[in-house]
Amino acid sequence: MTVRRLSPAIQVVHRRFCTPALSVLFLVILCLCGCGKQRPAVLGRWIEIDRPDLIWFITIKKIDSPDILEFFDDGRVSFEKSTFGLTGTWVILEDGRLKVEVGVLGSTTTMTGGLEGPKLLLIARGDTTRYERSSPQLEASWPYLHAMKVGLSSAVLAEHAYFDDHRTYTTALTASQLILPSGVSIEITSADSTGWSATARHSSTTMRCTMTEGGMMKTGGGITAGIPQCN
Fold this sequence. Notes:
By secondary structure, the chain is of the alpha+beta class.
């Protein structure tokens, strides 16, 4: 095999412009141009975990599927399991908030919010809906989680009714005071005149939901009064 040598002129160019330092500089420039653009954390699929009316309206038992949002990197967002199969647009505002606009029945609904720890919060007309990063396990467990939250909503109504009569909350709610979906059990773990806590379980999953109201709320434990926390 014949090995051709570079001409003297080409050798000079090679020595002058292809030094290790210039090679490193070239890689840095490529990184600045292509690597500095971070992937927005909101991209991907999110599953609804809390609705604005979740605790206060027992009629939500009729809801059998959650909204699943999917954010795309071209600025589109879809509400996959919404009744109307809605689509819209999203953008990150200068103040860091997320803005979502969705067309509904000829008008535009605007939602704002952002990430709060592992959760996504969207606010529309003063009501906040919470989402978590979706997964096959979470989507499969959603009916059981929803049923447990419905059970907790029944406990809210029963505890408030008991408080109106006795000026204190109770750990001794009876089955006749609760309206529980099939497979759901509720345990009132603590109660006094300032508040109460409860745990909901479902026979079809090892996950559970807890909720606290009033003085029983843990100030530093990430628990929000009146909002179920499921794991």
